[in-house]
Structures are given as C-alpha cells and as structure tokens.
Write a structure and sequence with these properties.
With 905 residues, the chain is α/β, with parallel strands linked by helices. Among the domains are: 312 residues, Rossmann fold; 125 residues, ANL, C-terminal domain (GMP Synthetase, Chain A, domain 3, 2-Layer Sandwich). The protein is 34% helix and 21% strand. It contains 31 helices and 38 strands. α4 links the parallel β5 and β6. α3 crosses α4. The radius of gyration is 30 Å and the shape is globular.
Length: 905
C-alpha cells in the first residue's frame, strides 16, 4: 500500500469544477519521514479560473479539512470566491493519506501533519505571497492549521474555523462518538476495515446529503487500504496526556492566545463531536473572534448551512473595505440616536436611597389566592441586601465581566441578585423558563455563563442537563442537596463584608444577555450594555412619567428589573411568569392595593384572564384597580374589544400598548384613545390607516423608518417614511441592543442599514405618522395574489363572532401559493370531541366573504382548531410555520397533529 496514489475523478464530484483539481509533488520534512522523501498532494485551487478570466485575487484562503472528509468539503467556498466581486484564491488541500493525496503507509501524528502543511505551502509558493493569507479549517484540520499558523505568523493575516477543537481537558471524557472509535475492540473495524466511521460522519448532516454527494465523499475511501489514514487520524486523537500528540496540542492551544489577528468561527451547535464546550474554550483563547452559532447545523456545518456567504462578507470587511459593518453601525448609531441625557448608572437610585425607610419592593404570596403579602423591603433594607449579596458573590469569585445566569422567579430575590450583579459589573444572563428544557439548554450553552444562581428546580435541571457555570443556590439547602447538586455556595450564607465596594463598570461594557422568547426561531441572546439598560429606564421614565415615588405592578417579567432603577416602589403579583394566564384579577388587585400602585405592566394573555376572572373581585379590590392611572401591555398586539373591556375594569387608567421587542423595549407607544382615533381614520379612508395594528409613534429618543417589501417578500435596502408603504420596520434608539450574542451573521442582517436595527417586523405609516404593524417579515405571504401581510387578513376573519384567533398562511410554491386561514373557534364548535380540520361550510363562507370585502384578498380554505400552538412566554404569539405545515398536510388529505392532542384527518 505504500506510495499509493489515487487518480482524481472531478467529474464524479458534484459542485466541483474540473479545473480546480491539481496535484503537486513536495519534498517532505515531517519527523515521521525518511530523509529525502517526497510526497504527491492533491488539492482544489480556483486560481487557474481566476487567471483565465484576468481576475486578480484579494488574497488566499488555505482550507484544511479534518477526518474523514477531504477538500471536497470546501467546494461551496471555492465557488463563492470565484463569483465574488473581489475574488479570493482558495486552496483546499487533501492532507496526506486522505482524499486523493498519496497514501504514505506511515502513521502520521499531529506534529507530522503540521510539518506536512508547511511543506505544501512552501512548495506552492504561499509562504512568499505579499497578499493576505488566511487559514480556514474544520474538525482536526483546526489543530493542524493552527499549528501551521503559529509557525507562519509573519505571513498569516487571519484565521477562520468551523467545528473543531484545540484543547481537550483530560479530566473530561471525550464525546461518545470518539470514545467508540477509539475503543480497541471497535477501532480497526469502525475506521479501516469498514466505512462505518465515514458513514456515521456523513449521517450527522442535518440536511440529508444527496446520494451523489455522499458518494463523492466516500470515493477516496473505498478500501481498507485507502482508509488507513482515517484510522490513524482517529488513533492520534490527544484524549489523554499519554497520547503522543497531547503535548503538541497543548503547545498549539496555548500558542494561539497570542494570535491577535482577525478571527471568525462558524459553528454547528448540534454537533455531538465538537460540542459547544470546544467553541467556548476557543472563545477564551481568541476573545476577539467573531462567532456565529448555526443552531440547526451539526458537525458538517458546511453542508447544513451556507458558510460561504458569511466567509466572503467577513473577508471583504477585513481585507477589502478595511472597516467592519459593526464599526460603521456604531458610528452611525451615535449620530442617529444620541442618549436622552447624561448617563446615570442603573444602581444610582438605589444607592441614593440607601437610608430611605419607605417601601421599595413587595412580593405577593403565590400560595392560596394570591392576596397576601409574602415579603417586603424598604429602600434601606433593599440597598443593604444588594450589598450583602454582591459581597458574597465577590467572595466566591464573581468578577467584572463574568456572566451570571439567574434562574430565579421574579420577585425580591431576583431583584436583589440583578442589582448585586450590576454593582459588581457581572453580566446578567436571563433566559425564560418558558423555553423548556431543550430551549434553555440551547440558550445557556450558547451564553456560556461562568456562574449559575438558581432555585432548587433550576439547579436540579442544571445538574442533569449539563448547563454551564459554577452553581450557587438562591436559597438555603440541606448539606446533602448541596453536595448532590454540586453547589459552591448559597445566597443565604453570604455575609456583608465590604469586599465588593468596587468601581462601577464602564457604561459601554456588557451588562446583560436577555434571551428572546423563541417564538420566531431558536431564542437569541440579546446583549445590552450598562448605558443601553439605563437608556431603557430613561425612555420609560420619560414616556410614561414614571418617577421616584411611583408604584408599579410588574406583571410582565422584562419590567421586573426596572423598579429600583426608576426609584419606583414595585410589587410582583402572585402568578407563574412562564404562564401569564395564571394572573387572576384577585391577584392583580391585591398586588395593586399592597402598594397603592398607579401603574400596571402586564402581557395580553394575562389581561384576558383578568377580564375572565374580574367578577370574583370584592368592592375593595375593585376600588384598588379603579385608582390605577396607567396600564402598559407589551409582548403582542391587544385588540380593541379587549381594551374596551379593560377600560371598564380600570376606569381612570390611560391604557397603553407599547410596541417593542427584547432588542428594544419600548419602541413606539399608543394609548387606547389614540387607537380609537386611528381606527376611525381607517374607516374614513385616511391614507395608510388600517391594514394592521396601530402602535402609534416612536417613544422619546427613538426613530422609525420603513424598508419597502420587494416582489419576493424580502425587504429592500432603501428606507422610506411616506404613508402607505409596507416594509420592514427599522428602529434607532439609545436603548436598542448592543448586539446578538455569538450570532455574527444574524447581527450582520440586523445592522445591514448602519445605525438602525432591522426588527424583522413589517408595517407602514399612515398620513398622521402613526406606525401600523402588519406581521413578521418571516410570515409574509408570497402568493398568486401578490405579496401579502398576515395581520389585516387575520383581523378581518376575527370579526366573525365564532372566531377567536386566526393565523393566515400561504400554501404552495412561493409566488403561486394560496391563502389559508387557520382559526381558533368559539363555543358553538367546542365539544368533548371537536373535529379539527376544514371549517363547517357556513363558517368558512362567512369568513371568506368578510376577508374579501375588507381586504380584497381571496381565501382558498378555512381550517379550525381548538387552540393554536403559541410562544409559551406570552401565550399569544402564534407559531405560524408550524401552523402552515399542519395546514398543508390537512389540505393534501394527510393525518397531521397540531399541538398536544390536536389531530386532523
């Protein structure tokens, strides 16, 4: 088998241009080789095509595969580099004993492969290039390429990595897939005698590979002799200090800390081999790296996702334009949305009131009917408690910049922890438990907190699900539980020592990572700086007149942290914050009465239940609600009928439904009186009025623009402010998020118009300058009737007395699809066994006629369900992609399930 050389067959490699396939014979200096030996390498190289077209590349990308793939892995990057306005040369090498390079018959270790790559680049003339030279690697190609990088720092311009690892802590077990491959009883059979290792690797693709692509990957490995390199590569995994390459791995892992060069990491988070822990480790070694997590991708991220586009965009930023999009965005942001006033830390008000003995925070008892006070603190007591907790965290080792995941329900305990972290400069990580175990695990492993503070249920989940961070109990626990849960301390045991009397953090340093609800895809971590959190506080204070001395009911979790920052007395009502429908009228009224609150924050789902349970109130409870002067309901649109009912419950309150998102809350504001005025303007035919939900005008310091929709349902680059033009809503404000956490590609889309946040919502202005929201950009319907937005269709259908909530979806190919409405139905259709699927003929006819009359859109079908699948955080955001899939199955006669216990035939 020694010196075996395969003949390349590019005609059998889908996606590869035959001109790319090249070979070269190279003198070898690897320690494993004898003096004077030479080896023949195969590689893919787009430079012949570029030269034939007379195009000069910006620079060169050296792409290095891992095991058991080969240069074929990088075909999309070669193709994109050719087509780029400013092209790049891509050299994708087949490592020796791999792909179509020579089979040497030798067992090559990591040190040999690093030397091999140096031999190859020298022979190809890459070592003497005067243009930018970067590495791109995957799998064990990461270690090899970084070993080469450390030996070629003088010519290296940057590094790019996909799923890989540069360090493995020998105290931890390696992933199960590699344990099996290294098992002496399985190793030879799995890696050489059979194609099992290759088959398993290809099977990790989340988007099934076509047979031709699978075959192309396997062509260089059709016999046990040809698979010897695969087997030896696995055998060389540095899993323990006893492994021959362990010391070399340590040298590379520590050496890259000094590589202060542009770096990009693109990661498939479903990878069972190079898991998130390896990404987190790399992030500590390359803290300046741009990172993007592809939440739906696995090990073969280059097959699961388009990695070529972000790679080319990133290269352009760093080596063509010389300025990154983030730099442009931050510069434009300063001009577009200056701060409302002088920066004042979030903790300033609490510090100023450290000797104030008036009431600051109150918790209602969740047991019973929620009418009793469970705990309360004065401002002086709260300030002292924050100091105590900050000192305790500091003594445990919590420092500025550390991420602290808080898995504690809203209330005094959470408020105390939040302000203790703000004082220390630690970064708060908050993910809604409504995400469920799977969603929380994804979020927390993405956020990579250093510490986790939780209640017993959260600590138990952290232990069993492997959530990162040293664990601290939010309350006292028995010694046995402390040991079983692996805790390093308890908040109850903290003492006030003054050790945390540290300088306040820089206003532009990270303060919080707040996770989105996950209603429009995997939850995203939204990073706020201290200045931006203060901007949120100042905007709310300015818009709603919330000042020191105000009393507010925090029935909506995102506002739980604002009371002490505003100087307002706050109360947390008795409810399950992950299920807003659990807030009853009695619980709300009792919380209101406890502090004579004048302001209520609550979600639409909570408000619906308050209306449903209002009749249970006594006269004193009704009187408490009658004193409320302001209601804020955020998280989802609130209908006029619902607001009308609320007004009878809160007779003197100004009802507001601010529009916002985790990335910016609030963005606009509108009162009930303004909504009624806007709806009347719509009936009178005012230009732009109607066709959505009126959310009013931008709040203090905020600005809104529209990027018009294109014929394919996407939003263009230009922005407009004229009435009646539907497009994506763009927002600029001092309190807009800093960035998405380790979601570089998502952030690029979000800030593609510098200075503005592209919200992903669609809407338009009316002639009075009010914003109307028409739905999500991802939910736009591209149909045979044109590009349609869903909200106007849904509102028209919801005008029928038998219909509760509606989801408008498009069924069929984009551009030729038809409109289908899926409606929750009223009591007449509810029984012990309601049939789910096509609506009764009379209901369908009425709804179709109503929608046509009000919107001019023809509906092809109306389906009914008992209840829509929703975002658990608000219980009001319909999961439209799931609904669309279900509807399509129903209409093609297939059996389908929509949500728990809902089956259509």
């Amino acid at each position: 088998m020694k010196n075996l050389q395969l003949t390349p067959t590019p005609a059998q490699w889908p996606g590869v241009d035959s001109d790319w396939s090249q070979t070269i014979t190279v003198a070898s200096t690897a320690p494993v080789e004898s003096t004077g030996s030479s080896r023949t390498w195969h590689y893919l190289d787009n430079s012949p095509q570029l030269a034939a077209a007379g195009r000069e590349p910006v620079g060169t990308v050296l792409a290095v595969h891992g095991n058991p793939t080969w240069s074929y892995l990088w075909r999309s990057v070669l193709a994109a580099a050719n087509q780029a306005e400013r092209p790049w040369r891509v050299v994708a090498v087949d490592q020796l004993d791999m792909g179509y390079s020579e089979r040497t018959g030798l067992k090559r270790a990591l040190i040999d492969r690093v030397a091999d790559l140096g031999d190859f680049t020298a022979a190809l003339g890459l070592d003497s290039t005067d243009r930018p030279l970067l590495t791109l690697a995957h799998d064990w190609g990461g270690l090899v390429s970084l070993g080469w990088a450390l030996r070629h720092r003088d010519i290296l311009s940057g590094i790019m990595l996909t799923n890989t690892a540069v360090f493995h802590d020998s105290a931890e077990k390696i992933p199960l897939a590699l344990q099996a491959a290294l098992n002496p009883a399985l190793h030879s059979w799995a890696t050489a005698k059979s194609s099992a290792f290759i088959d398993v690797t290809l099977g990790l693709a989340q988007k099934p590979l076509g047979e031709a692509v699978k075959q192309a990957y396997k062509l260089p490995y059709t016999t046990s002799e040809l698979r010897a390199g695969v087997s030896n590569f696995v055998a060389d995994i540095p899993a323990t200090p006893a492994a021959s390459s362990y010391r070399q791995m340590i040298e590379i892992a520590e050496g890259i800390r000094e590589l202060d060069l542009p770096a990009l990491m693109l990661w498939g988070t479903k990878d069972p081999v190079f898991q998130r822990r390896y990404m987190a480790d790399l992030a500590t070694r390359l803290p300046h790296a741009d990172i993007h997590r592809f939440e739906q991708a696995s090990h073969l991220v280059a097959e699961d996702e388009d990695i070529a586009s972000p790679i080319l965009n990133w290269l352009t930023e760093h080596f063509v334009t010389g300025i990154t999009q983030r730099e442009r965005h931050l510069a434009a942001r300063q001009e577009q949305a200056p701060a409302l006033g002088e920066y004042r830390p979030m903790i300033a008000e609490l510090t100023a009131r450290a000797k104030d003995h008036s009431l600051a925070v109150v918790d209602m008892n969740p047991k019973g009917d929620g009418t009793q006070v469970a705990a309360q603190l004065t401002w002086a007591e709260l300030a002292a408690e924050v100091d105590r907790v900050a000192d305790g965290l500091y003594q445990l080792g919590v420092r500025r910049g550390h991420r602290v995941n808080l898995l504690v329900p809203p209330g005094i305990r959470l408020t105390t922890l939040i302000y203790a972290c703000l004082k220390l400069g630690a970064v708060i990580v908050v993910a809604d438990t409504g995400l469920g175990a799977k969603g929380l695990t994804r979020a927390l492993k993405g956020a990579r907190p250093d510490w986790l503070v939780g209640v017993p249920a959260a600590l138990t989940a952290a232990r069993s699900l492997g959530w990162p961070g040293q664990r601290i109990a939010a309350m006292a626990l028995p010694k046995a539980a402390t040991k079983a849960l692996g805790l390093v301390g308890s908040v109850e045991d903290f003492t006030k020592s003054g050790t945390a009397d540290v300088e306040l953090p820089d206003p532009d340093s990270d303060a919080a990572v707040l996770y989105t609800s996950g209603s429009t895809g995997p939850a995203k971590g939204v990073v706020y700086t201290h200045r931006q959190l203060a901007g949120m506080r100042d905007t709310i204070s300015s818009t709603y007149g919330l000042k020191a001395g105000s009393g507010l009911v925090a029935g909506f979790a995102p506002f739980a942290l604002l009371g002490p920052a505003l100087g307002a007395t706050s109360v947390t009502p008795a409810m399950d914050v992950t299920r807003p429908k659990t807030l009853t009228a009695r619980a709300l009224a009792s919380a209101t009465a406890a502090i004579d609150a004048t302001t209520i924050f609550a979600s639409p789902a909570a408000l619906m239940n308050i209306i449903d349970t209002f009749d249970a109130l006594d006269e004193n409870q009704r009187a408490a609600l009658a004193k409320v002067t302001t209601l804020l309901s955020a998280g989802a649109p609130v209908t006029t009928p619902l607001l009308t009912k609320l007004q009878t419950i809160l007779p003197v309150a100004s009802l507001h439904t601010p529009y916002g998102m985790t990335e910016a809350l609030p963005a606009t504001d509108v009162s009930f009186d303004e909504i009624k005025e806007a709806e009347q303007d719509a009936r009178d035919g005012m230009h732009g009025a109607g066709g959505g939900v009126c959310v009013g005008k931008a709040v203090d310091g905020a600005f809104v623009q529209i990027a018009p929709l294109l014929a394919d349902g996407t939003a263009g680059a230009e922005t407009r402010q004229e009435p009646g033009i539907t497009g994506e809503i763009l927002l600029a404000a001092p309190h807009v998020k800093d960035r998405y956490d380790t979601l570089w590609v998502t952030e690029q889309v979000s800030t593609s118009t510098p200075g503005w946040h592209r919200t992903g919502d669609v809407g338009h202005f009316d002639a009075a300058g009010r914003l109307w929201v028409e739905g999500r950009l991802a939910h736009v319907l591209v149909t045979s009737q044109g590009v349609l937005t869903p909200v106007a269709l849904e509102q028209a259908a919801e005008g029928d007395a038998e219909v509760r909530r509606v989801a408008a979806v498009a069924i069929g190919p984009a551009g030729t699809g038809t409109v289908v409405l899926v409606a929750e139905v009223g009591p007449r259709f509810r029984g012990k066994r309601t049939v789910q699927g096509p609506a009764p003929v009379d209901l369908a006819a009425r709804v179709r006629e109503r929608v046509l009359a009000e919107t001019g859109v023809e509906v092809s079908a109306v389906l009914i369900v008992d209840e829509h699948p929703t975002d658990v955080r608000h219980n009001s955001k319909i999961d439209r992609p799931v609904v669309a899939q279900w509807a399509e199955k129903v209409l093609t006669g297939k059996r389908a399930r929509l949500g728990k216990g809902v089956i259509a035939w």
